[in-house]
Amino acid sequence: MQGSLRGNAGPRIRHVVEESAPYETITVDQVTPIIGAEIGGIDLSQPLSNRQQDEVHRALAENCVIFFRDQHITPEQHLAFGRLFGNLHTHPAAPHEPGHPELMVIHADKNSPRANGEGWHSDVSCDLEPPMGSILYIKKCPPKGGDTLFASMYAAYEALSDRMKTYLDGMTAVHDGEQVYRGLYANYGVADKPNYPRAEHPVIRTHPVTKKKALFVNRGFTRFLVGVPRDESEGILNYLYQHMENPLFQCRFRWRENSIAFWDNRCVQHRAMWDYWPHTRSGNRVTIAGDKPY
């Protein structure tokens, strides 16, 4: 990569997906050298062979978020695909399809007061064991707009100065769902719970599969850094948020009907654009359970 983040003195982006061995059962077309790939040659409505499963796992690990076009899957097939990657996570607040608590409803139309995921975030990072990943299947799209942006937290971490990495090493932050979720889904008739998840996580987490380091704070859920004065915490977090939202770390996915995005929540943040009012965007999300960040 040629550019730097802060003029000539700034750090260069060092995280680029390396050339890997050829894939045998799928095609992998990178969206950017940093993050994202479209996967072809696979029909998710059909049972996947062990080799296909392995290669989808590998494509996710190498690209952080992967996309599938022209998929026609039932709710049961959507859930079954998610279970290939682990146990399923039930959202602590969002509405779900009747009889399927793991099948989250994603919907915005002309009557919606808001849309899902409008700000940069990592899904449910307030959980003690935040989700490993999310699989979003969009069945109805607006004619224009409604893209989702994804950002690599590997690249964001690697572009930090060595002094900042040293400062953040071993630091933790509190993530809290209370301010996010209370009253959020009232328009769906969802009643509030007595309390919502709250957890303390490392600011820099190590990915359990790739062993790479990634930033793990986000505007949506992170409230403060532990062990420093609140004004210092606010200043550092604001810097990190601005840093990690740099377009150089991102890819942008343009939805079409019957498309799927599958992102690794441990090293990716995302933001859904609500620029399509009064049109409708609708689908379902299956979320895969994760483990405690370290």
UniProtKB/TrEMBL annotation:
Tagged with keyword Iron: yes
Keywords on record: Dioxygenase, Iron, Metal-binding, Oxidoreductase
GO cellular component terms, A-Z: cytoplasm
Domain (TauD/TfdA-like) ranges: 29-286
MF-aspect GO terms: metal ion binding; taurine dioxygenase activity
One GO biological process term: sulfur compound metabolic process
A Pfam match: TauD
InterPro entries listed in its UniProt record: AtsK-like, TauD-like_sf, TauD/TfdA-like
Similarity annotation: Belongs to the TfdA dioxygenase family.
Protein name per its UniProtKB record: Taurine dioxygenase
